[in-house]
Design goal:
The protein contains 8 helices and 9 strands. By secondary structure, the chain is an alpha/beta fold. It has one domain: Rossmann fold. A hairpin with a 3-residue loop joins β5 and β6. α2 crosses α8. The longest helix has 16 residues. It starts with a helix and ends in a 13-residue tail after the last helix. Bound molecules: guanosine-5'-monophosphate. The site of guanosine-5'-monophosphate has 15 residues, from β5, β6 and α5.
Length: 201
């Protein structure tokens, strides 16, 4: 895969704590900017009501997920919140970049670290909540997790918030459209690659 020059920065990785609105912001980009290619991850988690196989996620069982990893078909993968596996299918990312399209991945911090190993010139964007209280309010408000799962996700969120400095830039998710616009600006006109991350002269 080409990771050099302008190509490398065409890949944008969005990460951030649970319930901050990563999925909603990515959906906004899908709906409003078809020129941006948005990755569909594979996961072993069960679909939530309204989620569509092949569109929200590729929902696979544990055996299929292991097979995808073992055969090198995942760009990155991780167990998230201690239970389910999530991963980015490699080939569609390579195809989007080969087609010259800006590409967006929405993944967790472990996955972001793996992508940075493989593609140091990619742009890493942290989506932050306006405040911790607002994050808790959003997680409780969406009502898709039970109390135990919420507690687990909030523990992960604390670690993820502490890792914010690792990212190239932060977007505070005050409103979906504003955060989405901000993200699209970065996808279409990325800032230069820092000198210590350049893989081509
Ligand atoms: P959810 O179960 O709420 O859809 O997602 C849980 C977490 O999994 C989120 O933090 C999300 O960023 C992360 N995630 C989704 N897709 C991927 C992926 O392909 N790779 C990794 N590493 N994490 C993912």
């Amino acid at each position: 895969m080409s990771t050099g020059g302008a190509d490398g920065r065409r890949l944008v990785v969005l990460a951030g704590p649970t319930a901050v609105g990563k999925g909603t912001v990515c959906q906004w980009v899908r709906d409003n900017h078809p020129e941006v290619w948005v990755s569909v991850s594979a996961t072993t988690r069960a679909p939530r009501p309204g989620e569509v196989d092949g569109s929200t996620y590729h929902f696979v069982d544990h055996d299929e997920f292991s097979r995808l990893v073992a055969t090198g078909q995942m760009l990155e993968h991780a167990v998230v919140h201690g239970v389910n596996s999530y991963g980015t299918p490699r080939r569609p990312v390579e195809q989007a970049l080969a087609d010259g399209r800006p590409a967006l991945l929405e993944i967790d911090l472990q996955g972001a670290r793996q992508v940075r190993e493989a593609m140091p010139e990619a742009l890493f964007v942290f989506l932050a909540p306006p405040s911790w209280d607002e994050l808790v309010r959003r997680l409780v408000g969406r009502g898709t997790e039970d109390a135990e799962e919420r507690a687990r996700r909030l523990r992960t969120a604390q670690d993820e918030l502490a890792a914010q400095d690792w990212f190239d830039t932060t977007i505070v998710n005050e409103s979906v459209a504003a955060a989405g616009e901000n993200l699209v600006e970065l996808l279409l006109d990325p800032p230069p690659v820092p000198a210590d991350r350049r893989v081509t002269p």
